[in-house]
């Protein structure tokens, strides 16, 4: 099966490493085969050069010109409703759930563990009947 996601200008990608981890970005310019310039979606962070191996490409592409101004990128992202489309994907929901789980306090983690154990017990009982 051929590749369908290529590093291209306007490609939305998820940053996987560093202080920008799990943030959505748009490729604004391709510097060389290993580095790209990105503009973060819904953020006030300045543009940054980032290695391509720290990006995970998504299926979304925004129609922008190479080296487009930050205002043009923001306008294109808003016109395509990129952030809304991204929020609806299973990938984004999984990331959001993992961040929510990290924010639990001791008692919430305890309740989660108890519910998880109850669910596992019910599943074991159902499987034992079959």
Summarize, please.
The protein is built from four helices and five strands, in the order βββββαααα. The chain has 130 residues and is α+β, with helices and mostly antiparallel strands.
Explain what you see.
It contains four helices and five strands; from the N terminus they run βββββαααα. By secondary structure, it is α+β, with helices and mostly antiparallel strands. The protein has a five-stranded antiparallel sheet with strand order 4-3-2-1-5. The two termini are 39 Å apart. The mean pLDDT is 94.
Distance between the termini: 39 Å
Mean pLDDT: 94
Could you tell me the strand content as a percent range? 15-25%
Largest beta-sheet characterization: 5 strands, antiparallel
Structural class: alpha+beta
Overall geometric form:
elongated
Number of helices: 4
Q: Radius of gyration over alpha carbons?
A: 20 Å
Series of H and E elements: EEEEEHHHH
For the secondary structure, the number of strands is 5
Approximately how much helix is present in the residues? 40-55%
Spatial order of the strands forming the largest sheet: 4-3-2-1-5
pLDDT < 50 runs, ≥5 residues: none
Key features?
single chain; 130 residues; alpha+beta; 5-stranded antiparallel sheet; 4 helices; 5 strands; 42% helix; 22% strand
Topology readout:
Elements lengths: L10 E5 L8 E7 L4 E6 L7 E4 L3 E7 L8 H11 L1 H6 L2 H13 L3 H24 L1
Antiparallel strand pairs: 1-2, 1-5, 2-3, 3-4
């Amino acid at each position: 099966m051929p590749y369908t996601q290529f590093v291209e200008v306007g490609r939305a990608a998820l940053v996987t490493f560093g202080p920008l981890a799990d943030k959505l970005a748009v490729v604004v310019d391709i510097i060389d085969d290993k580095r790209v310039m990105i503009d973060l979606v819904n953020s006030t962070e300045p543009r940054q050069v980032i290695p391509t191996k720290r990006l995970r490409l998504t299926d979304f592409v925004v129609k922008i010109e190479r080296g487009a101004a930050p205002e043009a990128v923001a306008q294109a992202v808003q016109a395509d409703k990129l952030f809304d489309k991204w929020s609806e994907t299973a990938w984004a929901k999984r990331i959001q759930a993992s961040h929510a789980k990290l924010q639990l306090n001791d008692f919430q983690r305890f309740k989660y563990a108890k519910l998880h154990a109850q669910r596992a017990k019910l599943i074991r009982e159902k499987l034992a009947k079959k």
